Amino acid sequence: MLRNFLIALVLASFGFIFLNLYNSYEPKTELTGIAAHYAENGASEVGAANLVTAVVVSYRSFDTLGEITILFLTAAIISFFLKLSNEDENKVIIHKGTSEILKTASQLLIPLIFLFGVYVFINGHLTPGGGFQGGAIIASGVVLAIMANPNMTINHTVIVWVESLSGVTVVIIGVLGIILGGGFLDSTLDGYGLGEFGTVFSAGTIPVIYSLVGLKVGAEISNILNKYQKSQKES
Amino acid sequence: MIYSLIAIGIGILMLIMAVIAILNDKLSVAVIAAGVVSLFASVLFLLMAAPDVAMTEAAIGSGLSTLIFFYVLNKIKRQNA
After folding, report:
1. If you average pLDDT over residues B66-78, what whole number do you get?
2. Does residue A25 fall inside a structural domain?
3. Chain A residues with CB inside 8 Å of B63's CB?
4. A126 to chain B: which residues are within 8 Å by CB?
């Protein structure tokens, strides 16, 4: 009784706070402050046709570096704990056979999904999408491969090397930005040129950074899924 | 006008799916319903002109996280049995 009363009290106070917030909310009719600067000067300063990419990879690329680090830590922690709970490594797992339809469809679809993922992160500065989206699409292709053929083993060494090398290269490009450009992870290096609309090799280092981010994200998520698949007893 | 009507319809469907995810007794049904919430959310993001977010939501929210939930469910069931 007392507990229910306390819960109702907390809910009512939350409602009061949010009602005040809702009443004092006025929608802005135009961009203000730093958002207006991004919207006006983003295309001319960075040269990315996709303004979201201009903000994510150039103006706020330090935050992107933080996001990559968080994803890396997540993958590391998951593989650490799943390793602990999975002691019998050498036990042969017998899976149920997958259906013929899934096998045949996966042979047709997996190359197309990989190609689309690569397209999304290479064209991140021109079309919607970018490194994180492309990496997630590649990882979903890996999921289809695992589901069609549960006994498939992913080469662990390749994944670890792709992940580490792309992470280190992003940081090296960032340091190059201090020397040649305007600061850490600045995308408009001197001699590398400002971006041009409509061409893939434009917009400074944005396509390079986004491709590396895409490879890293794809490798990390594939690694996580592979660990989960390996930790299943039988399926 | 027609866009806002579609958006309201998708929002109501999302609410229904979320209630199913909370109240259903079978965990597998609940996981599927949570995935469908993400799928409708990605359609909603696309209608609101945010294709970047829609791609992420469709790939991670409704695809990969649903799969990881199923992996974990399977592992928990085996250990309890």
Report:
1. 84
2. no
3. 136, 140, 143
4. none
Residues 138-157 of A with CB under 8 A from B: 139-140, 143
Over residues A184-209, the pLDDT tens digits come to 766 665 545 555 555 656 666 777 88
Mean pLDDT of A56-63: 80
Count of CB atoms within 10 A of residue A215's CB? Answer: 23
Interface test with B, best of A55, A84, A114, A137 (most B CBs within 10 A): A137
In angstroms, what CA-CA distances link A62 with A89, A131, B65? 39, 15, 26
Q: Which two tokens stand for residue A49?
A: 């046709």
Cβ distance of A139 and B64 shorter than 8 Å: yes
Residue-wise pLDDT for B13-51, tens only, equals: 999 999 999 998 888 899 999 999 999 999 999 888 888
Segments forming the whole domain that contains residue A180: 56-71+98-226
Total domains in the fold of chain A? 1
Q: How far is CA B11 from the centre of its chain?
A: 12
Assess: ipTM above 0.90. no
Residue A173 lies in a domain: yes
A204-231 average pLDDT score? 83
**Inside any domain, residue A172:** yes
A41 is a domain residue:
no
Judge: A136–B71 Cβ closer than 8 Å, yes or no.
Answer: no
Total domains in chain B come to 1
The pTM of the full predicted model, rounded to 2 decimals, is 0.79
- Scanning A46-155, the segments in alpha helix (DSSP H) are 51-53, 61-85, 100-122, 131-148
